[in-house]
Design brief:
Shape: elongated
Largest sheet: 5 strands, mixed
Radius of gyration: 29 Å
CATH topology of the largest domain: Nucleotidyltransferase, domain 5
CATH architecture of the largest domain: 2-Layer Sandwich
Strand content: 5-15%
Oligomer: single chain
Number of strands: 7
Strand order of the largest sheet: 3-2-1-4-5
Number of helices: 15
CATH class of the largest domain: Alpha Beta
Length: about 375
């Protein structure tokens, strides 16, 4: 029996129910529950109410169906999601206008392109929910304290102007596998807090000179000047070589550190260690010195362009507590390039050069070349 039929039956017996005796009401109620398969308390509320509930509209006639009647839409979404390394629906929504013009797997009708541009993150979640997988693996910590300079390098206490590009958080990612014994490669990972612009370099072990040279090379390839440098308490950062390089110059860079055993002090870079390093290179042991130039050749080309030009991210803009709940509000997903172009603190010629570079890039080609180089690195790692 359909909902509308049940409500017609309800309207027919309600007047009789209200005039009936107690024994008669019991019989009418038993018959009503049996016929409509209602809970007894719910049936009593319906019979005693003055108005019949409105019949809800058929959900199949709503706007959601327009995405289901085109199999190509789901196929394109899956292809983009896998190609872009499984982003959340909000980031995937922001990627569609950046990646779709370069989609050449097959020709898409204009109607499909239009619906892909209009699709919401909630609809993407509904379409892709059945087959999504979650990751939960975590790496090892190799931070050893650099205690000598702790008193000379201040702890960051939110004194930075984080709306201006140039304030970096830095960390090292150990490619040590299951053991931190012996020698292996590290990745120095840096992120600009204002724009989310990231840059990486590989080093062999955590020697002070090698780390300083890598940071100097990263500074020369950033589209803005470094104004602040914040790191953890590892000895690769807390040393005289890096302190001299950052502070003994005409325009000294503000050198700060996080509190010991407080990873959340460097939350920006800790998140990038997972999304920008581990998800692509995994947790294997990189204990061959020849892997370092291969990693740097990857980091300085396709890697840098892919993450900064075609990989949107969200930024936390507000956080407050209501009772036991913490409410967080984020801005719309944007690529680091988009945030950089919107900044009034970046030279106009730099913006023009970056925009011209973006117009000449194809994200699918970048991703394909990245995969080829990563496969070559993993192949060398697995050689006995």
């Amino acid at each position: 029996m359909g909902t509308s039929t049940k409500y017609e039956y309800l309207n027919a017996i309600r007047p009789r129910y209200k005039k009936a005796t107690k024994q008669q009401k019991k019989q009418i109620l038993d018959e009503f529950c049996h016929t409509c398969n209602y809970n007894r308390k719910y049936a009593i509320r319906l019979l005693n109410s003055k108005q019949t509930p409105k019949v809800k509209a058929n959900l199949s006639k709503r706007g959601r169906k327009k995405y289901y009647d085109h199999p190509l839409i789901l196929d394109v979404l899956w292809h983009l999601w896998i190609t872009t390394n499984l982003p959340c629906s909000k980031r995937l929504k922001a990627m569609i206008p950046l990646w779709l013009p370069h989609f050449n797997k097959y020709i898409l009708p204009e109607q499909v392109k239009q619906k892909l541009q209009q699709i919401s993150p909630a609809t993407i979640d509904r379409l892709m929910a059945p087959n999504r997988k979650q990751y939960g693996k975590r790496g090892k910590s190799t931070t050893k304290p650099g205690a000598i300079l702790k008193n000379r390098i201040p702890i960051k206490t939110n004194q930075w102007d984080e709306t201006i590009p140039g304030f970096l958080e830095a960390d090292t990612v150990a490619h040590c596998g299951n053991s931190v014994a012996g020698s292996f490669a590290y990745t120095i990972n840096c992120v600009d807090i204002a724009t989310e612009w990231t840059i990486q370099r590989a080093v062999w072990e955590k020697g002070e000179i090698g780390v300083v040279n890598a940071i100097q090379d990263m500074e020369n390839n950033l589209p803005f000047q470094i104004k602040g440098f914040d790191c953890d308490n590892g000895s690769e950062f807390l040393n005289w070589h890096l302190m001299k390089y950052l502070t003994k110059r005409k325009r000294p860079i503000q050198f700060t550190r996080s509190r010991a055993y407080h990873k959340n002090d460097n939350a920006h870079i800790e998140g990038k260690n997972w999304t920008h390093i581990r998800q692509f290179l995994g947790y294997q042991r990189f204990d061959k010195p020849e892997l370092v130039p291969m990693l740097n050749q990857l980091y300085t080309t396709e890697w840098n362009l892919y993450f900064n030009f075609f990989s949107p991210s969200v930024k936390l803009i507000e956080k407050y507590r209501i009772g036991s709940k913490i409410i967080k509000k984020y801005d719309k997903p944007k690529t680091p390039l988009q945030r950089l172009l919107e900044s009034e603190h970046i030279d106009q010629q730099v913006k023009i050069n970056l925009k011209n570079q973006f117009d000449q890039l194809n994200p699918f080609q970048l991703q394909k070349q990245m995969k080829r180089k990563i496969d070559a690195i993993i192949k060398l790692v697995n050689q006995v």
